[in-house]
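example protein:
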Amino acid sequence: MFLRFINEVKRTLGEYGDERFLRESEHSDLASTISFKLAKELRKSPKEVADEIVQKIEIESDYIGSVESTNGYINFFASYDFLEDTVNVILDEDENYGHLNLGGEILVEHTSANPDGPLHIGHIRNSIIGDTIARILRKAGVDVKTHYYVNDMGRQVAITVLGVEKFGLTGKKPDHAIAEAYINANRLLESRPELERYVEELMLKYEGGDEEAVKKFRSVVGKALDGIKQTLDRINVTHDRYVWESEFIRNGYVEKVLKAIDGKGLIKKDGAWIIELEDFEKEVVVRRENGTTLYITRDLAYHLWKNENFDRFINVLGSDHKLYVSQLSRILEIVGLNPPEVIFFEFVSLPEGSMSTRRGKFISADELISKVLEEAEKIIADRDMDEEEKRKIAEAVAVGAVRFDFVKVAPEKPMTFDWAKALDFERQTASYIQYSHARACSILRKAVEGGMPDLEFKGELCNAEERRLVMLLSKMPYVISRVVDELRPNVFAEYVLSVAAAFNEFYRSNPVLKAESEVRMHRLAIVDATRIVLRNGLELLGIEPLERM
């Protein structure tokens, strides 16, 4: 609905309705700053320009209640009709509210952790950002596919294969057992460096398609992925497809992309195949002297495939990949292919230092989820409900706490993971939003005990808290469109949190069930509209909207 309001303001401003100068404001429902730009050209003050524009405006929109000039800003305020239509549209569209019709096909590649052990807390920041972006894109009407790119050809996997051969696997969760084998193999290589040759032989045989090597690698990587999938499932993250790096050796795409690069005269063949470009900090090797390829070679092939199959493709990667991505993107551009859109995120660090899978120093995602679940169970323990319901609520609260804690921070900002903050079930958390949704459900349950009342929202009855809340509710499609453009899921998390805060402020100040008949119906309509927005918002964040807590 807010998108419609923006369009009405643009139409009303006419030649001055440049959307680049429209913004949300604390002092109005929408403000234009066009006067500040025009003031320099017209050699007048912004206030004079704004006053002149406002004097010429004729409001012919049912959605614009008033417009005023204030210190150079042109401030627009929504009408009662807009408020009424907002609530009615939300109630009518229900689970579809927020849907846009953007169309197109987008591939989102995320997580893609090396299959040498379990996901740690840094990996799940990637997973949650990627999954949330995919959910929001689908809500925007985009045909979205999600990929996990499986690095099954690297040295780390070969070392893991060695570890499984020498030490076997324990009865632990498969990805944790794989991690033990990988850690033990690294220790073995430190004491027996002659085994490095065997590791190299494993890599050569696997790339060459040796049947026995393929069987070993597929088994080890498959077991790691089984455990990883279990972890992702716990935090409501799924992938449409797990794309194995080796596929692009087998299906000819590596040769295809190398031919395209060579056709541009970029490759220097002196034993190894090397790309040298002036704007690269260092040369890029795409084929070793022994004929084997490198990670970037297979990734270039993967992106050639992406170009052939998708309108847009988005990668979620740690910020330490920036140099690599610049090299990948530059090569793709030279051969006439589109580079990926990349969401870079800063890693999650621990108070005691960095994480290293090789040395066995990391906090796994499984540990994090289990710890948060344990604390959630303690909080829910005294609730008046059966044990099964308590268990389900605790699980939903724990998953919500994890997902929201990682997505609410802007991707480009680093996070130091702190147990106390992750387990804070007060404000600024998913549980606060879930509780707000449960409160709305509870109010509506009590309201219908004597039969479902006819909800009738009336804009002219709105007080300040009600008006602020309804205006926020109107912005859900607008915020979704922002996330599509900016690829910043934290913007949506902040929005849903602001709706919960505004709803609780409204509820504290405005009796609902005890209000007189007309006002009661009016406020129940607001409660129901808020319930819908909170439910839809939580689902887009991958968090269960609880009806009881």
Remarks:
- The longest helix spans residues 211-234.
- The chain has a mean pLDDT of 93.
